[in-house]
Structure formats: structure tokens, C-alpha cells
Amino acid sequence: MNQLGTYRQLTRRHFFGQSSTGIGIAALSNLFGGAMTSTLGKSALPRTTQDQSRFHLQPRAKRLIYLFQSGGPSQFELFDYKPVLQEKHGMQLPSEVRGEQRLTGMSSHQTSIPLVGSSFKFARHGQQGTWISELLPYTADIADELCIVRSMYTEAINHDPAITFFQTGSQIAGRPSLGAWLAYGLGDVKLDLPTFVVLVTVNKGDQPLYSRLWGNGFLDSRYQGVRFRAGKDPVLYLSNPAGVSSLARRKMLDRLNELNHTQHAIELDPEIESRIAQYELAFQMQSSLPELANIDDEPQSTFDLYGEEARFPGTFAANCLLARRLAERGVPIIQLYHQGWDHHGGLPDGIRQQALETDRPSAALIKDLKARGMLDETLVVWGGEFGRTAYCQGYMTAADYGRDHHPRCFTIWMAGGGVKPGFDFGHTDEYGYNIAGEQGEPIAPQKSFHSKHAVHVHDLQATLLQLLGFDHQRLTYRFQGRDYRLTDVHGHVMSELLA
Predict the structure, then answer these.
(1) Contacts of 31 (CB under 8 A, 6+ apart)
(2) Is residue 326 within 8 Å of 292, Cβ to Cβ?
């Protein structure tokens, strides 16, 4: 390197090294909050001081609770009532309905693709007369709170890319998750709990879930989701070892932070500052997390609402209750994952069990938030990565059948946080195979995605971001020479869904 290059390099390093010290100390003092003055590490009440300048728009919601139903819930058994499937049960799916749409490798070999009607009855609920299955009596009871979207579609036909698409905006692994993008947009949210918390129902098989679904991708590691485990220790290694007091832990952490600041001045690696922040958050959670996880202070009425399953850590009901407790304490991004919806066979029994596990707590969460005056500022989303086919996969009997993956049209619902309550949006054709027109009139399969009622994954993501105060086209991060965003180069806000 020539002398001029050396001079420039030293000048840059000197400038950043000197300036980072002052910036780092200021940031650290904000990060520590009361912890620096409390040698015992006792947390003050949770604080949420979001910098309003971070928002592009006025937020309609302060927080997101996403109830992700992994495996692809069948809309035909839950929300999309199709009497024609009952009438034509066992008959072949018409070729003009299918068009040139591909089938998965699991049913493409079938010589017959017979239509199959749902085993379950439907009825109208709420002021709008929304069709909801008998499997979901508790959800039916909150029909007037729900914004139901029946015209969702995705590009992925298999689980891993489809889940990855919903969670990161790309079918290819490696991009930041929705929660990480939101945490990045929110910036410095001063809490004694993580900004982005993940809860996964325990003891559920089916399709695997990976930590990259709530990962930070190429964003700073402080924006990744923190997965809480079931039980009294939701995060490992927070407790002090035997013989180590909180005062000793505080002193050790102070010395460690000094070493990290020294290393940062030399290397200028932002991940070192993220490590400092994570150490401090872990210290604060030593007092905040046990209080959060202890549900002994909940009255019996809570368990009358959520069900007795809410007493058992790791169940979907317990996680829904924990989501409400997290929301009360200011956590802005809460993601629940519940597996078990992949019913290629044995669908009637399988989906009945899934409904028993999820219906009551999902509805209870909405009722609980509303009773506490929190629903208007909390956006709740329920849905999976795709839907199921109108035809049977595999062998069909009078009492049993299965359905294959179907990305062309399926149902999700939202509630609270700026969406229209008691609102049905979008239609599917009489077979539930394609998105239909405004009055449910059929559209050629190749044109159905161009309907103004069709909601692409990126459209949903753009809408969620807007409700939380962010323009999806402006929430970007430059990486490897280009600006990335959650919605890539697609997506538009579905203003029809907004209250």
C-alpha cells in the first residue's frame, strides 16, 4: 500500500475509533437504563420509548402477534364453505377449473383426482353472517372482530419454501424475518425483555421449523427473534451459578463490557456492540423473565377463558396467554408457531384435534386483549403457508380423506390493530380452487391473480408493515451492493382491509 493509502486508512480508523467511543458510551447509558444504578439488577416497570422519527407513517398498531399455523390448514374444513363439493363429492375436478396448474409430486401420479366435500357443517356468524365451521365455535363467537381474507395466494407449493416465503419474503433461506425487519425499523425499544419473542408449541411433529424463520439474516444480530422455551426457565443460562450473587454478576458484566468496548475501538465491528446489548438484556431478564413466566397471579377467570391447557407451559393455549403477558409488558413483536396442519390423509380426525388445541385460545387472546383495552393497538394475524386442495389426495373412504397442498387460494384472518372488524374480503370459485371475482364469478385460472381481490404474500407483508408504521418500499437495508426489503420488488398495501 502506498503512503497516501496508509495515511487514508489510519485517518479513517482514527476518526471512527475516536467518534465511536462517545457514541458507544451514550448508547450504552441509554441501554443500561436503571440497571447501571441498581447493583441488584431489579427491573423498573417495562418501558417502551419508541422514537417516532423511525416511523414512516402514523402507526395504527403498537405491536404484532402472529399466530402462524404451520402445515397448511384446510380452508374447506374451517372457513371456505363450498356446498358444491358436497353435491359433486367423488366426481372429478373439471379440467377447465384446474387449467394448467401444476400438482405436487404427491398427487400428480394419481389417475383420479376426485372432489371431496367437508365432513363438517358450516353456519353463519356475526352481524355479517360469516361462514365458519362447527370446528371453530370459539372463533365463531368473535366473528365480528375478524377481518377474514379468503383470497390469499402464494407462489410456493411445498412447505419449506412456502413457510420461508411468509416469514422472510423470499423462498430462499437467508433473508431477515418479518420480525427482524420490524425490530430493525423500530430501532431502540428500551425494554427489559426482547423486542422480538418467539413461542413454539411443544410436542408437535409434522413439518420442521428452523430458527432462520425468526432470524436476522444480514441484519444486525440484535434484531433476531429470541425463542422462549417451555417451563420455568424460558431462556437458558440466565440464572446465576451457585455462589454467584447479582452484585458479582453486575461487576463481571461491567468488566466484560470494558473489554468489548476496547475491542470495538480496534476492530470497529458493530456486532461487538450488539454483543454488549445482548449481555445487558440477559442481565435485565434475570428479574423480568421469572415474573413474566409465573402465571400464579392470573385469576381463575383467565383459565376459564383460555382453557385449563393454558396452565401447562408449551401448549398453544399457554403460549397465547404468554403472548398477552408479553404484550402487556411492552414487547412489540410476538410470533407463535403451531405445527400439525399437514393433513395429506386422516384429515377429519387430524383437523378436529388441531381445532381443539387452537380454537379456544386464539379466540381467548382476542377477547382478552379487547377486555384490557389493548386490541385496537394490537394487530393479531392467524394463518398458515398455503391451503389445501378441493380434491382428495390418496384413497378416499366414506369417513376419511386427505388434501394436498394448494397455493392458489386460501384463508387467513386478522383482528385489531387498524383492520376492518367483521369484514370478509375476497372470494374463491364454487370449487374453492381459484380466486374469483367481486361477486364470486369465475375467472380464468391464468387471470385470477390479477383480480383486485387477490392478496399475494408480499401484499400481506406490505399491509402489516403499514399498520405498524412503516412504508414497505422505504424500510430497506443495503447489503452486498443493493437495497433489500421484506417485499423484494413486489407488493402493495391492501387498503380495502384497513379500518
Answers:
(1) 188, 190, 276, 277, 280
(2) yes
